[in-house]
Amino acid sequence: MFKINDNYQKLPGSYLFSTIAKKVAAYTQANPKKDIIRLGIGDVTQPLAPAVINAMHKAVDEMADAATFRGYAPDLGYEFLRNAIAEHDYKARGCDIEPGEIFVSDGAKSDSANIQEIFAQDNKIAVCDPVYPVYVDSNVMSGRTGTYDAVSGTWSDVVYMPCTMENQFAPEFPKETPDIIYLCLPNNPTGTTITKSQLQEWVDYANKVGAVIIYDGAYEAYISEGDVAHSIYECEGARTCAIELKSFSKNAGFTGVRLGYTVVPKDLKCGEASLHGMWARRHGTKFNGAPYIVQRAGEAVYSPEGKAQLKEQVAYYMKNASAIKSGLQEAGYTVFGGVNAPYIWLKTPDKMTSWDFFDYLLEQANVVGTPGSGFGPSGEGYFRLTAFGSYENTLKALERIRKV
Ligand SMILES: Cc1ncc(COP(=O)(O)O)c(C=O)c1O
What we know:
This protein is α/β, with parallel strands linked by helices. The chain has 13 helices and 17 strands. It has 2 domains: 12-47 and 306-403, Aspartate Aminotransferase, domain 1; 53-304, Aspartate Aminotransferase, domain 2. Strand 13 (335-337) and strand 14 (343-347) form a beta hairpin. Pyridoxal-5'-phosphate is lined by residues 42, 107-109, 112, 132, 184, 188, 216, 218, 247, 249, 255, 260.
């Protein structure tokens, strides 16, 4: 008789966004005439940039001709893309990362969920609280998190680093020393980040205690302040303690196209074992590469036209962020984020719980956001709105929120 992976049974409830979708569907069914504005899921709405579309068309034509047709991609990704990444995301920022340390993938979600499998079962993970739920859930699935306490919403073997208004949303070194530290900066959901010197302290800490940092830079393109690092490899010593995950979803609108990459420096070792070699082995065995057409699209992101067009797209979303932030502040809300990330994190009014505020906003303003408690226990009492809607809808949603 077969047996299942029991760890899956430990996962509490359904994924946050399915719960939201169910609630919205029930409300829409009961109120079919209401016009709902969705500022909940972190999905983009602007179309792909012309430079990206042109590159994809060209690549499609190449696939139609036997002379230029491409089959399986190289394990690590095509050199043209890895060279562009190394040049623009690293060398241009003074980071010492070579193309051979870059693993092209189908996105940061899969990489952030899969990376844990190259580590031993008894590693202790530390996560910012609140944070993107995939880090904890993927460790639950592999049986690394102990038991779940439904009252506190915490796992017995996970180290939580609360990020709240009391510490300006900056994770603090935990009392218990972790082995694997997940840092998502700028952070989803709080939309806040830390300075480069604060990040340097984390790198020094990880090197000192022998921990590895898994650094998720999915929102890097939204950084607007000068003292914030665009890559963890801007910090001295990061090559011996950090893995960096990047996505093309939020900087270039690839949420439905699918492309990302992971950097594993060759200096990152556990004794004699090279994590680069292990991830290469895993990639080669379990992943067959992002499509050629998509990798060409990714290359176009770094072209002069692509860069200019995407800068405009990011500016469009950040205009929304700034409108939400100032609009809510004028309406008396306490608001965070929205400066280095497309997320606005607000304190729920009158001590409402996150889910009560979700229902209130849905019913009274017909606006969908995301309850902070869905991202971790310290997210309770907070609420996330995204800047990824259209400008018109963003203003309309604000007007409605102001009225209720
Ligand atoms: C922090 C973070 N990492 C990764 C992802 C997923 O990125 P991708 O679309 O590349 O899988 C998201 C998506 O919302 C995210 O918020």
